[in-house]
Amino acid sequence: MPSPSHLPPSPVLSWTTSEVRSWLTQLGMARYARLLCDQHRVDGPALLMLQEEDFRQPPLRLDVLGDIKHLAYHLSALRYDLQCSDLKVKYCLAQSPGSVLAPTSAGDSSPMVRTHSLASTSSDDSSYGREPPTQSGQLGGLARPLVCTSCQAVIQIPKSNLATKLNPERWKTAVAIMYALSVSWLTALTMTVVHDRVPDMNKYPPLPDIILDNVPHIPWAFEMTEVTGMTLLSIWLLVMLFHKHRFIIARRFFSIAGTIFLLRCITMLITSLSVPGVHLDCKPRPYGTWANRLYNAYIIWSGAGMSLQGVRTCGDYMFSGHTVSLTLLNFFITEYTSRRIYFLHTFTWVLSCFGVFFILAAHEHYSIDVFVAFYISSRLFLYYHTLVNNRAVTKYQESFDAKRTWFYFPLFSFFEQNIDGRIPNEFQLPLSPEDVRNGCQWIGNLYQSIVKVVCSNGGVGRQERKKKKAMNDRMN
Questions:
Q1: Using CB atoms within 10 A as the burial measure, which of 183, 256, 390, 394 is most buried?
Q2: Pick from 282, 255, 279: nearest CA to 191
C-alpha cells in the first residue's frame, strides 16, 4: 500500500469530505471513499473521531482486516501530527469512547497521544493488578508505558484495584476482638435459654430430613468435625501471624464472625426445632437462678461450645455454628493466600466439606441448619469483600451507595473507612531482627532503670540508718 507522501496542506480539522477523499486516495483506500465521504459524510473532525472499533462495527463494518489496521494506523498518525492549541477542540476530540487525548511532555502545542483505560476488578494475589514501571511521563494523570519512543504508541494497562492506604489501625482490631468476644458470650447465654425450651422428644419426634433419613448415624463423626475445625483454625492462625497486613485481616475475620453469630442468637431464639436425632439425650434443663445460668453460660463460653471440651448443648439448631466456623476459616485462608498454592486451597476445601459431612453424619443438625449456615457465611463474606475491593466507602464518600452502605453495614463502614482497595497478599516475619534488637534494648534500659532505683533507695536507707545510729550514740 503506498504511503501518503503528499497530504492536503490545510489542517485536518478544516478538511472537507473532498479532502478526506483525497487522503483516502493517496493511501490507496479510494474504494472506501464512497462509503465514508458520500454515504456517511465524514469530514476532518469526524475522521479524527473515528476508532478502530468503528471500522469493525455497523454502519461501516469493513471486511478486510488489513485495511482496518492500515486505516487505524494512519488515523493515529494524523492525530499524532495534529497541532492544536484550542482547549475546546481538544476537549471535544477527547470525548470519543474509551479514549483520552492527553498532551505529551512537550506542552500544549505538541502532538497529542490517545490513551486508553480499562477498569479491573481482579481479586487475585498481589502480583495481579499492579501497573508495570513506565518509560514515559504521566498521561492523563496515570502512568502509561510506551511501546516505542518514535511512534508514541501506548499500551493498554488495567487500573490497579490494590489498596494504597494500609494503615493497620490496631485499635480497630482491638474493637473487633472485643465485639467478637461479646457476641460469643451472648451466644453462650442464649444457648442456656434455648436449652430450657427444647421440645419434648416423646411429643415432638425428629423432623423428616432427606439427608439424615438416608445417612446412617456415625457416633464419632461430630468429634471429627471439631478436629477438622481445629486444623483449619491452626492454618488460619499461621496465615494471620505471618501476613504483612495481619491487623486488617484479623479485624475482618472477627467482625464478620461476630456478626454471623449475633444473627445466630436471633434465629435460635425465634424458633425451637425438635431434636434431630433419637440418640441425643436432650431435655429441658431448669437452671433455677440467674447465677446458675451465668455459670453454665461461662462453661459453654470457656469451652468454645465444643464437645471435645465436654460441652453438650441442645436446642441451638438453626443454624449450625460449626458450619459457620468451617466456612469462614476456609474462605479466609483461600482469600489471603496466593492462588498459586493449589495444594493448600484444595486441602482446606476438602477439610471444610468433610467437616460439614461429619456434622450431618453425626445427626447433630438438620440439613437446613447446615445449608443456611453455609449460605449466610459465604454471602456475608463475599458481600463484605466485594464492597471493600470496589471501594464502596472511600471512592465516593458522598454518594448514595456510600450512605446506604453506612446505614445497612455500619460495622463494615467503620472498620473499612480508610481502606481503598484490595489487600495484597504479602508475608513477613511477625518480628523483624530490628524489632528484636529494639525489644532487647528496651528490656536492658528498663533493667538499668530498676537497678538505679533500687540502688538509690538502698543508698538513702543506709544514710538514714547512719543518722539514726549517730543520734543514738549522742543520746547515750
A1: 256
A2: 282
Q: Output the nine-digit C-alpha cell for 153.
A: 504508541
Please, are residues 180 and 255 in contact by the beta-carbon 8 Å criterion? Answer: yes
C-alpha–C-alpha distance, residues 161 and 119, integer Å: 8
Strand 112-115 and strand 138-139: the pairing is unpaired
DSSP assignment, residue 246?
Answer: H
Which residues are registered as beta bridge partners of 100?
115
3-class SS at 294? helix
Q: Give the burial class of 76: count Cβ atoms within 10 A of its Cβ; 0-12 exposed, 13-18 middle, 19 or more buried.
A: middle
- DSSP H or E stretch at residue 100: strand 100-103
59 cis-preceded (ω within 30 degrees of 0): yes
Q: In this predicted model, what pLDDT tens digit does every residue of 293-324 receive, in sequence order?
A: 899 999 999 998 888 888 888 888 989 999 99
Cell triple for 248: 486488617
- Can you tell me whether residue 314 is helix, strand or coil? coil
Q: Which of 188, 409, 158, 197 has its CA nearest to residue 301? A: 188
The structure's pTM equals 0.64
How far is it, in rounded angstroms, from Cα 38 to Cα 49?
A: 18
Q: CB–CB of 144/157 below 8 Å?
A: yes
